Amino acid sequence: MKRAEGAGKATLPKSPEKDDKRAKAELEGLAEGIIKSIDRKENPKIVTTSRTKSNVIYDDKEGILKLGDSTEERTFVNVGQAKRFMQTIAVAAKCYKFVTENLHTSIRGLFYQLKYSLGEDIDENIFNEQGESNPLIEDLEVALNVKREDLNLNATRRGVLAGDMKVMDSFGNERLEIDTSRMGRSGWAIPSDVDHDIEFVDVKAKYVLVVEKDAVWQRLNEDRFWQKENCILISPQGQATRGTRRIIRKLSDMGLPVYVFNDGDAWGWYIYWTIKTGSINLAYIGSDIATPSAKFIGVTMSDLEKYDFLKKMTMRASEVDLKRAQEMLGYPWINKHKEWVEELKKVIKTKTKLEQDTLQGPRLTFIDDYIREKIRNKEYLP
Amino acid sequence: MKRAEGAGKATLPKSPEKDDKRAKAELEGLAEGIIKSIDRKENPKIVTTSRTKSNVIYDDKEGILKLGDSTEERTFVNVGQAKRFMQTIAVAAKCYKFVTENLHTSIRGLFYQLKYSLGEDIDENIFNEQGESNPLIEDLEVALNVKREDLNLNATRRGVLAGDMKVMDSFGNERLEIDTSRMGRSGWAIPSDVDHDIEFVDVKAKYVLVVEKDAVWQRLNEDRFWQKENCILISPQGQATRGTRRIIRKLSDMGLPVYVFNDGDAWGWYIYWTIKTGSINLAYIGSDIATPSAKFIGVTMSDLEKYDFLKKMTMRASEVDLKRAQEMLGYPWINKHKEWVEELKKVIKTKTKLEQDTLQGPRLTFIDDYIREKIRNKEYLP
What is the ipTM of this complex? Predict the structure, then answer.
């Protein structure tokens, strides 16, 4: 296997530092702009970058998916846009309230607040379905260059972490020190928001290891892999949430190499590429949550050549796996790496795949040795 | 609303105490029995209680779903059973190894160990799919009267907890004290196994509050509801896992009343009844993981009479909700409670439902007052 380029800490621009007060100022600026327009008898408008698929681009220099330059305007005096304009302002007003009160809720909580308050004065429901309010939140994120988390809207959280590091969580009035090396069998649950009133200090680990499956995380945690290897052990517990992607990026910003160990199938690849380059759906926050320096340590089809027992352990690749492999060969951010082209072609040709749990076959702790060796020998895909 | 009977601590038999060494002894007993049969030239057999739906009964006295008396025999000298018999012994042997080594894995990890070790000597794969090994694990659980967790097989974990209590987690060689009142925004992640090498001490809380959705848990955690009310705040984060059901039961065994706050729909009811009476699929461990004293505090259709604003906040009940409500009316453990019959009939009649997030409508903290009042006034369904 060709050695991939070094874990590359230095070349990337660091993700923007968060400023708790900026979201509030941005919301105030939006409101002031609209009031000024009205005073001047102009048509109030909101300008936002287009989030359509055609405006999602791969930035080869940064190594992330992000939005292009196309913008969209929402104006108030426009039959087709008036309702949506008004809805966006209603969403902004609620978020301003949450930020001012310093209270958080979910996008579903926001939806019910909108349903409640608008329902008081007006007989018609202005939002009937949450599907109507969700894209307006994204509009605001893009228009104001803030993240949902800056607007006090929690996203789904999932993911767990263990390692030699401390979390300073200013929770309520208390400043808690949480030692993520003393969380036992459970690990530390990665929250939705890892930017506000929270700090990661005393990070003594040398690298970050991300393992797709929680069951594998538990296995490695039991072996104290993170302690023996001095790494931060993370499982996204499936697809990585915004919070989990963000913390991986923050640890990368601190100079830690990031290695990902997943199933060698459609889902495992997808989870990896989402962590590395970001995703099309969240391209608008790609520069915050993608970690372009991430490396894929396995499971790969090349492992079959090295570990003889694996030949008996392959599973049949599903239609989804094969279709996904074919699609991935068409993505410029993937097919620019010949190691990935080889890997995907092997899957398509043999119609087989390997799961990460397979490495527990010979003995439960074999998986530890596999990972250690891969990292030591720099045997990973870019 | 009729007041439900008291939270009833005393009448239930406590769930069995766990003995770490019992599973090992049971596995040894199984093996010895088989060896003896062979020595005596008898046909080796394994006797297990039938887990078919027809053998799942509702025990009205205990208030749980459990297995009836039908048993099944697996014998070795039997064309139809020989393979399955051998597979069961292979599973038992692996579990014995895990227990002896004091290492844990998932049922997928077990599957790959079986695939590996049998594959060494025999050309044919004895397990092709995990679907073949999973029921054999359940066979063993029932035959030996142990839980998967006793066999060092982790189940899926999910669920989070905060409250005034300490977890003594003997993790590896370290005995960690985890204070679940100092877990900040994250809470303590409930592990798969809450019985072995783990203790819950200094439980100062007065009751347990279970909220279906993690977003609602986060909302209440931010308000420090558990601190103000002195309760243990748990979210199963959807359907409750074995570990989450088990910890709820253990806290109930300590004398704490258990209140559940869910959506008033198919999924919310299902989560509640699974916590309270156990489920058909896991009836074989019902006496360990069901909490018959649990009460349902909402959201209920009767809330519409009390909280006027809710009338504007109902959602259309889905086909699944209506079908489920109809089915539930046929379950003896549900239709024996006339409060539940009334509730379900209201949903069927009005074809509407209420979600727990609705209670954030008037203000984010309204949900706190709602829960407090419900508990104070004992306004819950049995």
Answer: 0.92
